[in-house]
UniProtKB/TrEMBL annotation:
Transmembrane segments: none annotated. Residues 5-231 form the ABC transporter domain. This is Macrolide ABC transporter ATP-binding protein. It comes from the Bacteria. Belongs to the ABC transporter superfamily. Macrolide exporter (TC 3.A.1.122) family. It holds the Pfam family ABC_tran. The lineage of its organism: Bacteria, Pseudomonadati, Pseudomonadota, Gammaproteobacteria, Lysobacterales. GO terms for molecular function: ATP binding; ATP hydrolysis activity; transmembrane transporter activity. One of its GO terms (cellular component) is transmembrane transporter complex. It comes from Stenotrophomonas chelatiphaga.
Amino acid sequence: MQPILELQQVHKHYAMAGEQVPVLRGIDLTIDRNEYVAITGPSGSGKTTLMNILGCLDRPSAGSYLLAGQPVTCLDEREMAGVRNRAIGFVFQSFNLMSRATALQNAMHPLLYRKMGRAERQQRGMDALCKVGLADRAGHLPSQLSGGQRQRVAIARALCGSPSILLADEPTGNLDSATTRDIMALFDALWADGSTIVMITHETDIADHCHRVIRIEDGKVSADRRRQRNG
């Protein structure tokens, strides 16, 4: 089976004070469909830069990236945006919800860029809210929701476009311990239902939910371990 994503000798550097500062140094990485992966590492290790490249939010300075078999490093900005919208569902630490839009409007927002009618968009948005247990909050604004509920709306938004992969950047970073357990149980259920999940985290107990843990240090993969999931 074709991997969902494949990186070969990916490098990334940034120009600072007239010098090229390396952030990623030759990353080789393959992730298959229905994998549940945590990317960990200390601050400044390059894991956020790696996530941005995986999410087609940034380009490598060198190397190749295939997403579902499609080379993406050679695409222009419009084509990259199309790939993001079709293939990737993002979940962020700070939720990134539209404050004046309801839970349903937030959930179905990615579908505004698809060729489908309003009724279909609303149905798919409601289906996504049902999947995260928030159908009864569809008409609520983010300010009327708890932190855990807002993150569930963000996950529904990520799911609404039926993406090939979910990319989650510290998705429990702003949540208390009880809500964190609830959100991770939801991710566990989504993975069991067939989703491919890649999660950036610095928390060991979050990484323990995943069956594969990749550690990034100094811009390189320093460890890549597969293991049985807890529970």
